[in-house]
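User: Sequence recovery, please. Input:
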Protein backbone atom coordinates (compact mmCIF):
# COMPACT_ATOMS: atom_id res chain seq x y z
CA UNK A 1 0.00 0.00 0.00
CA UNK A 2 2.71 2.47 0.98
CA UNK A 3 4.83 1.54 -2.05
CA UNK A 4 1.86 2.02 -4.40
CA UNK A 5 1.15 5.46 -2.95
CA UNK A 6 4.83 6.39 -3.13
CA UNK A 7 4.94 5.18 -6.75
CA UNK A 8 1.89 7.26 -7.69
CA UNK A 9 3.33 10.34 -6.00
CA UNK A 10 6.68 9.84 -7.74
CA UNK A 11 4.98 9.51 -11.12
CA UNK A 12 2.99 12.69 -10.49
CA UNK A 13 6.10 14.62 -9.43
CA UNK A 14 7.97 13.49 -12.54
CA UNK A 15 5.07 14.57 -14.77
CA UNK A 16 5.17 17.99 -13.15
CA UNK A 17 8.95 18.10 -13.57
CA UNK A 18 8.54 17.38 -17.31
CA UNK A 19 6.14 20.30 -17.57
CA UNK A 20 8.63 22.57 -15.78
CA UNK A 21 11.38 21.39 -18.14
CA UNK A 22 9.16 22.19 -21.15
CA UNK A 23 8.47 25.62 -19.69
CA UNK A 24 12.20 26.21 -19.17
CA UNK A 25 12.96 25.29 -22.78
CA UNK A 26 10.13 27.25 -24.40
CA UNK A 27 9.96 30.18 -22.03
CA UNK A 28 6.19 29.80 -22.06
CA UNK A 29 3.69 27.08 -21.17
CA UNK A 30 3.58 24.42 -23.91
CA UNK A 31 0.42 23.70 -25.84
CA UNK A 32 -1.16 20.40 -24.74
CA UNK A 33 -0.29 18.59 -27.98
CA UNK A 34 3.07 20.27 -28.51
CA UNK A 35 6.20 18.15 -28.69
CA UNK A 36 9.17 19.79 -27.01
CA UNK A 37 12.78 18.71 -27.35
CA UNK A 38 14.29 18.59 -23.88
CA UNK A 39 18.00 18.14 -23.29
CA UNK A 40 18.51 15.40 -20.73
CA UNK A 41 21.29 13.58 -18.99
CA UNK A 42 21.24 9.95 -17.95
CA UNK A 43 23.12 8.27 -15.19
CA UNK A 44 22.83 4.97 -13.46
CA UNK A 45 24.28 3.02 -10.64
CA UNK A 46 24.27 -0.42 -9.12
CA UNK A 47 24.17 -1.08 -5.41
CA UNK A 48 27.74 -2.35 -5.66
CA UNK A 49 30.53 -1.74 -8.15
CA UNK A 50 31.29 -4.26 -10.85
CA UNK A 51 27.69 -5.15 -11.73
CA UNK A 52 27.64 -7.89 -9.11
CA UNK A 53 24.67 -6.35 -7.34
CA UNK A 54 21.17 -7.61 -8.00
CA UNK A 55 19.74 -4.07 -8.04
CA UNK A 56 20.45 -0.89 -9.97
CA UNK A 57 18.77 2.33 -10.99
CA UNK A 58 18.94 4.65 -14.00
CA UNK A 59 17.80 8.28 -13.84
CA UNK A 60 16.92 10.77 -16.60
CA UNK A 61 17.34 14.43 -15.60
CA UNK A 62 16.57 17.67 -17.34
CA UNK A 63 19.71 19.58 -18.27
CA UNK A 64 17.76 22.83 -17.87
CA UNK A 65 16.11 22.27 -14.49
CA UNK A 66 18.18 19.45 -12.99
CA UNK A 67 14.99 17.66 -12.01
CA UNK A 68 14.44 13.93 -12.41
CA UNK A 69 12.09 13.29 -15.35
CA UNK A 70 12.12 9.51 -15.32
CA UNK A 71 13.80 6.60 -13.62
CA UNK A 72 14.05 2.87 -13.95
CA UNK A 73 14.91 0.41 -11.24
CA UNK A 74 16.53 -2.75 -12.53
CA UNK A 75 16.73 -6.05 -10.77
CA UNK A 76 18.32 -9.33 -11.66
CA UNK A 77 15.91 -11.09 -9.34
CA UNK A 78 12.21 -11.75 -9.72
CA UNK A 79 10.99 -13.01 -6.38
CA UNK A 80 8.02 -14.73 -7.97
CA UNK A 81 10.33 -16.66 -10.32
CA UNK A 82 12.60 -17.57 -7.42
CA UNK A 83 9.69 -18.92 -5.43
CA UNK A 84 8.16 -20.79 -8.35
CA UNK A 85 11.42 -22.21 -9.56
CA UNK A 86 12.30 -23.60 -6.18
CA UNK A 87 8.94 -24.92 -5.09
CA UNK A 88 7.12 -25.79 -8.27
CA UNK A 89 9.61 -26.56 -10.98
CA UNK A 90 8.78 -29.87 -12.56
CA UNK A 91 5.14 -29.70 -11.51
CA UNK A 92 2.51 -29.74 -14.21
CA UNK A 93 1.34 -26.18 -13.74
CA UNK A 94 4.87 -24.71 -13.83
CA UNK A 95 5.02 -24.40 -17.62
CA UNK A 96 1.50 -22.93 -17.69
CA UNK A 97 2.46 -20.39 -15.00
CA UNK A 98 5.69 -19.55 -16.80
CA UNK A 99 3.93 -18.96 -20.12
CA UNK A 100 1.69 -16.40 -18.42
CA UNK A 101 4.42 -14.83 -16.32
CA UNK A 102 7.38 -14.57 -18.70
CA UNK A 103 6.15 -11.53 -20.63
CA UNK A 104 5.46 -9.54 -17.48
CA UNK A 105 8.70 -10.74 -15.97
CA UNK A 106 10.80 -9.81 -19.01
CA UNK A 107 9.46 -6.26 -18.85
CA UNK A 108 10.82 -5.89 -15.35
CA UNK A 109 13.84 -8.16 -15.21
CA UNK A 110 16.42 -8.12 -17.97
CA UNK A 111 17.91 -11.52 -17.17
CA UNK A 112 14.66 -13.41 -17.73
CA UNK A 113 15.79 -15.13 -20.94
CA UNK A 114 18.37 -17.02 -18.94
CA UNK A 115 16.02 -17.56 -16.02
CA UNK A 116 13.83 -20.38 -17.12
CA UNK A 117 15.48 -23.67 -16.41
CA UNK A 118 18.88 -22.15 -15.74
CA UNK A 119 18.67 -20.01 -12.66
CA UNK A 120 18.55 -20.89 -9.03
CA UNK A 121 17.75 -18.07 -6.65
ZN1 LIG B 1 9.61 -13.54 -12.91
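Assistant: Recovered sequence (121 residues):
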Amino acid sequence: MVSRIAEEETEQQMKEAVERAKLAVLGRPPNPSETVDIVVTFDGTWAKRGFTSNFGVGVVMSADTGEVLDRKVLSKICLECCHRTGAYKGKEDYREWWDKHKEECSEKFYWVKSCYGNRSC
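The beta strands are 40-46, 55-62, 68-75.
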